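Progress report, Aim 2. The chain analyzed during this reporting quarter is listed below.
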Amino acid sequence: MNYLQVSKVITLPCGVTIKNRFVKTALSETMATDDHQPNHLFNRLYRQWAIGGAGIVITGNVMVDRHALAEPGNIVVDSDRVLPKLRQWAADGTINDTQLWM
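Predicted structure tokens for the chain:
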């Protein structure tokens, strides 16, 4: 009899190892600052998802052109100035061996 093995480690063909097969899919959080930057709300939310045990957490909308926002509150990455905030978001979202995919 075959059983679902959602808690087992899986290695993808590209070589990335995922700690389990639980995936939090993309949402549109609409929590960015007025200048479209991630903030403590993103850090706290993604940290909690990582602590919760998902193998992969996929971010919500992240735009590369502020003139093409899907909706207010989306993050825009159109310059290097956002990198420190992205690094903090990534650090919080990857604790507990969680993959964070944007």
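The chain has a mean pLDDT of 94. The chain has two helices and seven strands. These observations will guide the mutagenesis work planned for the next reporting period.
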